[in-house]
């Protein structure tokens, strides 16, 4: 079965119009799916309760925060407390980011007590991305003690973080 669509020929380039339409639809879908990552500096998850906390939509904050929403103040505090800090550049529209987040939440009991992973909004933290050389969502940056860029990579889940900190 063949389906044909009427396409206006533009200077002999019949592919141009469909390509522009498809690109526009894809970009619009991606940008419309981004949502608020939460209140900066609030816990996304924590270590108490193991995997039962991972299934909760809004875990309670406690003394051992391992996975929190990014804020400059929260990062500064973690570094001042001697915590090893990791920025996770997450986009809600990104399926691999969501998969990595599920992995982090499911396995939070494996995160050492001196490590904090900051869920960082890829779409909103433009200056931070530039500062750390991040060009793609689902990127991780381990911060040096002074807050400068340490190790940086894209992809993976909690295991890739634990191997690089």
Residue stretches low in confidence (pLDDT < 50, at least 5 long) are 19-42, 44-64
Distance, first to last CA: 55 Å
> What class, by secondary structure content?
alpha/beta
- Quick one: CATH superfamily? Glutaredoxin
- Element pattern in H and E: HEHEHEHEHEEH
User: What Rg is obtained from the alpha carbons, in whole angstroms?
Assistant: 20 Å
Give an account of the 3D structure.
This protein has about 160 residues and is α/β, with parallel strands linked by helices. It has a single domain, classed as 3-Layer(aba) Sandwich (Glutaredoxin), CATH 3.40.30. The protein is about 35% helix and about 20% strand. The chain has 6 helices and 6 strands, in the order H-E-H-E-H-E-H-E-H-E-E-H. Strands 1-2-4-3-5-6 form a 6-stranded mixed β-sheet, sandwiched between helices. The protein is globular, with a radius of gyration of 20 Å. The termini are far apart. The relative contact order is 0.15. Mean pLDDT is about 75; it is low at about 20-40 and about 45-65.
Summarize the structure.
This protein has 6 helices and 6 strands; from the N terminus they run αβαβαβαβαββα. By secondary structure, the protein is α/β, with parallel strands linked by helices. A hairpin with a 5-residue loop joins β5 (about 140-145) and β6.
């Amino acid at each position: 079965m063949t389906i044909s669509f009427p396409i206006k020929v533009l200077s002999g380039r019949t592919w141009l119009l469909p390509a522009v339409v498809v690109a526009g639809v894809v970009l619009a879908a991606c940008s419309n799916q981004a949502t608020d990552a939460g209140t900066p500096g609030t816990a996304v998850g924590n270590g108490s309760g193991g995997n039962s906390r991972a299934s909760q939509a809004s875990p309670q904050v406690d003394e051992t925060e391992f996975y929190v929403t990014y804020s400059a103040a929260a990062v500064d505090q973690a570094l001042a407390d001697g915590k090893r800090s990791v920025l996770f550049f997450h986009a809600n529209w990104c399926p691999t980011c969501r998969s990595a987040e599920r992995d982090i939440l499911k396995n939070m009991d494996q995160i050492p007590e001196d490590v904090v992973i900051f869920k960082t909004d890829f779409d909103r933290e433009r200056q931070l991305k530039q500062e750390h050389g991040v060009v793609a969502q689902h990127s991780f940056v381990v911060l040096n003690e002074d807050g400068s860029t340490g190790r940086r990579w894209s992809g993976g889940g909690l295991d890739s973080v634990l191997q690089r900190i």
